[in-house]
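Fill in residues.
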């Protein structure tokens, strides 16, 4: 009998080819933040954006959408987001849930629903496609379930990329339009599967996080490239 193995790195590249463009657009979003924070709003409301025709958020719509509470005894596929106003604390927690999954115990739909609770409620800024690209496709999830594959994550450190800090120092007021921060997080993902198979790899990612004053932070998206 052939030995069971973990899915290869290529097999764990969950996004479809069309998702590359979406992730590149998000990369452009945060690149704009990194190079010129003041240009963020203009990028997000660009003519080719599907949300560009939406009205600007009102005072009430800028608040994060409340996450539904789990009923007693209900299983949680993804941990609840922390109520913090610290972008780095939130980004580290968000990275952990993005890198963690358990195909043995939860369906893909449950996993997706859990991750959606982390997203900002401001549709103008939320890039769910870049987050869903981190999730195995339904077919791949089924294969991983058959292989009882699951992953955990240990988070190391998180920091604002240097270019982001430089841009913010040059124009501190520019961030106040969207309050979107770029945060780079490092850590290690450990994967295990049936037959005592296991493996681990060091990883890094850069997230876009929204932290408005007096409002809990929320996830905007996952960048396609790591910003140092």
């Amino acid at each position: 009998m052939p030995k069971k193995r973990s899915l290869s790195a290529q097999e764990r590249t969950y996004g479809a080819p069309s998702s590359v463009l979406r992730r590149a657009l998000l990369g452009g979003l945060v690149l704009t933040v990194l190079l010129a924070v003041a240009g963020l709003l203009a990028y997000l409301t660009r003519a080719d954006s599907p949300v560009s025709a939406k009205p600007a958020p009102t005072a009430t719509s800028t608040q994060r959408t409340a996450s539904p509470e789990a009923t007693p005894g209900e299983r949680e596929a993804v941990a609840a987001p922390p109520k913090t106003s610290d972008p780095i604390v939130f980004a580290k927690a968000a990275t952990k849930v993005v890198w963690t999954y358990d195909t043995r115990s939860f369906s893909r739909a449950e996993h997706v629903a859990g991750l959606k609770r982390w997203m900002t409620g401001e549709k103008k800024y939320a890039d769910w496609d870049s987050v869903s690209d981190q999730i195995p496709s339904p077919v791949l999830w089924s294969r991983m379930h058959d292989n009882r594959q699951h992953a955990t994550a240990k988070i190391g450190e998180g920091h604002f990329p240097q270019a982001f800090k430089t841009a913010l120092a040059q124009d501190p007021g520019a961030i106040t339009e969207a309050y979107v921060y770029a945060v780079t997080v490092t850590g290690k993902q450990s994967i295990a599967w049936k037959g005592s198979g296991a493996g681990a790899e060091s990883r890094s990612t850069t997230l876009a996080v929204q932290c408005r004053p007096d409002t809990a932070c929320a996830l905007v998206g996952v960048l396609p490239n790591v910003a140092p």
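Residues 85 and 106 are 30 Å apart (CA to CA).
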